Automatic annotation (TrEMBL):
InterPro entries: Lysozyme-like_dom_sf. SUPFAM superfamilies: Lysozyme-like. Gene3D superfamilies: 1.10.530.10. This is Glycoside hydrolase family 19 catalytic domain-containing protein. The lineage of its organism: Bacteria, Pseudomonadati, Pseudomonadota, Alphaproteobacteria, Hyphomicrobiales.
């Protein structure tokens, strides 16, 4: 894990990741925002250190190491190898085609390399498990869905924010290009000059404000302010907009969690894994989703309530989770939740072989 100066922060950790970041930084300088994030996380952790230290930490319900090992093996590595095999098959098909029509051969596929979970990914999972320890619920389906949905929405716990730093228009995701076109159309309709997309490149704050704080936005952000940047997507659950940050703040207060936390004043607090995990659980416990299958007024239920209802499978619950960016990707969340449920069961009731493997890897 890199320090602010891009060197390794932990003596026993490899320097490879830090060297890659250094090279990336030298090539295009686009990681400056990432290291501002590191500093912000440290400030947030320091601001709430006393309150975090007071939080009740009961005996763990699930030892993290066996679950992490299962996740790494049965999802990250298994899927990584499956994707590699697909690339090899595509390469062999293209090579066969080039041999037949005497066209240039495709570049060879590099040798397969097994991937391993990074320290940062493991810390996110551990923070969620610690919050699971602090709630009364014990139904493994709830934890499996939390881990399954969050792992999907965070790209396996590697993304805790939306990137707004781009140096070329071609780098912008299609969703951002569409939003820029829509916002410029609104400006033209209001007899205002459209914004040149090139003026937003290498200006993450300006881009975030244009994308998230436009007139009539759905995020509760105030146009003409820095709300788009201040309340940009952050955290494991990816809160976005003043309205969601305010809701998360209210949820934490209702649960009596982390007294003194003020997400509107210090939204960067979500960079801290522990705080982010607490906010995530508060959302799962208190935010109510409309269930059109039920008659009003009792047709709004929390994710905890939906998951405890055995009539709902992973797909049904995800379909009701309408505040996520990809509510239609239920199949992926279903597969991940099933995998995590199996890993939870294995961690709770390990076989003799798994026990030996866990001892080999070390317990935490």
């Amino acid at each position: 894990m890199p320090k602010d100066d891009l060197d390794q922060a932990r003596e026993r950790q490899s320097n490879a990741d830090c060297l890659q970041v250094k090279l990336f930084h030298l090539l295009n300088g686009s990681v400056a925002t990432a290291f501002e994030t590191l500093k912000d996380a440290k400030l947030a952790r320091a601001a709430y250190a006393d309150e975090l230290a007071k939080e009740y930490r009961p005996t763990p319900k699930i030892k993290p190491q066996p679950l992490l090992a299962c996740y790494e093996s049965n999802w990250l590595q298994k899927r990584g190898y499956e994707e590699y095999q697909q690339k090899v098959a595509a390469y062999e098909h293209q090579l066969s085609k080039s041999n037949k029509d005497h066209s240039p051969a495709p570049p060879p596929i590099p040798p397969y390399r097994k991937s391993y979970m990074a320290y940062y990914q493991a810390e996110q999972v551990k923070a969620l498990l610690q919050e699971w320890d602090r709630v009364e619920e014990t139904d493994p389906r709830i934890l499996a869905y939390i881990l399954g949905s969050i792992s999907y929405d965070s790209a396996d716990f590697t993304r805790s924010s939306e990137n707004f730093s781009y140096s070329a228009v071609s780098q912008l995701p299609q969703k951002w290009r569409d939003r820029i076109d829509e916002n410029n159309a609104r400006l033209v309709a209001a007899n205002q000059s459209p914004v040149d997309v090139n003026s937003l490149l290498n200006h993450p704050k300006e881009l975030a404000n244009f994308m998230l704080a436009y007139e009539g936005n759905d995020f509760g952000n105030q146009p003409g302010t820095d709300d788009g940047w201040l309340f940009r997507p952050r955290g494991m659950y990816q809160l976005v907009g003043r309205e969601q940050y305010q809701e998360a703040q209210d949820q934490m207060q209702r649960l009596g969690e982390l007294q003194g936390l003020d997400l509107l004043t210090l939204p960067d607090a979500l960079w801290d894994a522990k705080i982010s995990a607490m906010v995530t659980f508060a959302h799962f416990r208190l935010h109510r989703y409309k269930d059109g299958r039920l008659p009003p007024p009792d047709n709004r239920r929390t994710l905890f309530e939906l998951l405890k209802d055995r009539a709902n499978d992973w797909t049904a619950v995800r379909a009701l989770q309408t505040d996520m960016a990809h509510p239609g990707d239920a199949a992926w969340v279903y597969a991940r939740s099933e995998m995590f449920l199996a890993c939870i069961e294995e961690a709770l009731h390990p076989t003799k072989l798994k026990t030996l493997q866990s001892q080999f890897y070390g317990e935490e």
